[in-house]
Structures
1.
Amino acid sequence: MAAAEATLLSQSLKTDRAPGSETAETAATVARTSVATAAAAAIVAAARTGSETRVSKAALATKLLSLSGVFAVHKPKGPTSTELLNRLKEKLLAEAGMPSSEWTKRKKQTLKIGHGGTLDSAAGGVLVIGIGRGTKMLTSMLSGSKRYIAIGELGKATDTQDSTGKVTEEKPYDKITQEDIEGILQKFTGTIMQVPPLYSALKKDGQRLSTLMKRGKVVEAKPARPVTVYSISLQKFQPPFFTLDIECGGGFYIRSLVSDIGKELASCASVLELTRTKQGPFTLEEHALPEDKWTIGDIARSLGHCSSLFPDQLALKKSKPEESNRQNLSCEFKTLNETKGEGDVIKTF
C-alpha cells in the first residue's frame, strides 16, 4: 500500500514539476502527426486530381473527335481566315489536353477542321467552319448567297482596293450626292461582269496573285467574269463615306464593286470597312460564335443548333461507335481551290 502511494506521489510530483515540458512535447508530436497526415492527404488528393484530370481530358478528346458538322464563328478584323482557323484549332487541342507540337507529329489522320469562304484580313464577320465529316459540306456553302455591310470611301483609290493598301489615286468627290449613288446602284444588280482585284487568292502558275504582287512581280488582271448581285442598297451617305448593304453570290468581290462605283461616279473609291453578316444560312447575330465560346461544349451545342439549317440531302449520318471513340489526335492539311475566287477557297486542316 505504501509502495503504491509512493508511486502515485512520485507520478504526481513529476507532473507537478514539469507540466510545461510535457505539454510542449505532446503538442510537437501532434503537430508532426498533423503535418504528416496533411501531406499524405495532399498526395492522395493530388493523385486523385491527376487521375480525374486524365479521365476528363480523355473524355474531352473523345468528344472533340466525335464532332462533325458545320458551324460559324465571328472573325474579327486583323487575322487572316487561316490564322483564325489555327487559333481555333489550338484552343480545342489545348482543352482536350493535346499540345499542338504533339498534334503535328501524328501521322494518322483522325480529325479535320476547315473553313469555306475566305474573308480578307481587314474584314470581319461570319466565317463558316466544317469539322469532321462536315468539311465535305463546305463546298455547298460556296454556292449560297452572302451578305455584307461595306463602308466605302470616295476620292481615294489604293492598290489593294481597301484601307490596307497604298494610295494610288485621289479625285474630287464633293459634287457627288446621295441621289447620284442611289441612281447607279441598279447598274450593279443582277448578273454583271466583274474584274477580280489583283490582290486576291486567284492563282497564276500555281501562286496567288496577291503573293506575286507583294513580291513586286508584274501581274495582269484576270478577265472580267459574270457574278451575281441579288440586292444592293445605300444605307448611309456622309461624304466621303457611304455604307452599302449587299447580298451576292459566290466569287463576288466587294472591293471591286466599291472601286467600280467610284469610277462610275467619275471619281474613285476604296473599301474602308467590310463585315460579312450572312453566309448561306448562317447569320452573324444568331450563329457566329465569338472567341470566348470556342470550346468543345459550345461547338457541340452549335452543331446541334445549326444542323436544322441544311436540307435533308446534306444531313450527316451518325458516326459509327468505333469512329466516335477513337482518341488519336492528329491533323490533315489540304486546300481545295474553287475557280470562283478568293471568297470561295476551302481550307481543311
2.
Amino acid sequence: MEQHENFRIKSRISPQFDPWDAWHTRLAKGRYELTSVEFTVTNLCNLRCEHCAVGEELVEREGAAIPVELLIRRLDEIDTLQTISITGGEPIVSPKVVKETIQPLLKYAKSRGIYTQLNSNLTLPLSRYEDWIEDLDVLHISYNYRDVHDFHRIVFAKMGREVDIKAAETLFGRMKENSRALAKAGVFVSGESLLSPFTSQFIDQMHHDLVEMGCARHEVHPLYPSDFARHADLISLEQYEEAIHRLLEVRDPNTWILFGTLPFFPCSDDRQHRGLYTQLHETPNVTVRQDPDGRNRLNVNGFTGDIIVTDFGDVPSLGNIHHDRLSDIFDRWLQHPLAKKYHCYCEQAKCTGPNILVANAYYNNWDFTKRSAEGLVKIV
C-alpha cells in the first residue's frame, strides 16, 4: 500500500492524546476546523436496542450505497483530516459492506496516518472481524447491562417479536468473548455506557465487566433523548453526580475513563458541579472529551449523501456529498446561529461549551456565551 502524500505519523491514543477531542485544534489554531468525518455505512442491524439513537432508520433490506470512491475523494479534499468514524446500524452485518466500504476506508486512512474508529455491537462471530481489524485504531462497543437478562430485554426491545433467552445468551457470551480475544490480540476496545435511571445505579458493576472484557477505555455518556430513546426518562444532575462519584470510588485505576457530553460545566452556579468538573480534570486516567459534533466533525449518510452536524440531533441536513465539499459545509456551519449559540470557549477551564442535546435537556434557559468560569484554577 502506497503512503499518501499527506501522511501523518500517528501518536499513541491515550488520556494525554485523544484525536477525536475538539479541544486540541481549538487551542492550537484559535478556531474550529474539520478534522473528523463519521460515515453511516449501513442501516442493517441484528439488534433493536431500546436506547438506539438511529433505531428508526434501521431496515431489513437496504438500497445501493454511495461508491466508496466518492467518499474517499471527499476525504482527500480535507487537508485538516485526522479521524474517521464508521457507524450504522451494525457495520459488520453485511460482508458486502465490509469488503466494499469499510476495508477501503480503513486502508485509505492507514495510508494517510488517519485515526479510525468503528462502532460495533460485537455479537457476530469473531471470524467476521479478524481479516481487517488490524487496520483499525478503536473498536467501540456499547455496554449497558448487568447480566444476560438485561441484555435480552434491552437489545431486543424494539424487535417487534419475541426472542428466546437462549439467543440472548449466545450473543451476550459472544460479545464478551470477542472483546477479550480482540483486546488480547492488541485491539483498542472502548466500551461505552449510557447513563440512564437504570444504568446509573449499576455503573460500577458495568465498569468492572468492561475491565474484565479487556477494554482499554470506559466511555460514559448521558442517554441521548433521541430516536428510540426520545421518550426515555433522563436522570437528574444529582443522580448523574452520584453515579460519577460511585464510579470513581471503585474504578480500576489502570483503565482510562472518558466522560463525553458531560452535563457539568465550570461556569455552573452550583459549587459542587464546578468542583466535580475540576475533579474529573485532575484525576489520573480520567478525561472529559469536548464534544466533536459540530466542533470538528460532520456525519455523512452513506446512502443519501446527506451531511449533518450530528447523528443524534435535529439539525437539518447541511448539504450533500454529491455536490458539496465537506470543508465548505463545515465552514458554513460555523456561521449557523446554533453554532454561534453553543460554541463558547474558555481556555482557562478547558471547556468548549455544551453538546446541543445536553443544553436542551438540562440548561434550556442558559446563554452559555454570557457565562464565565471566574475564580477557577487553570486546568491543564
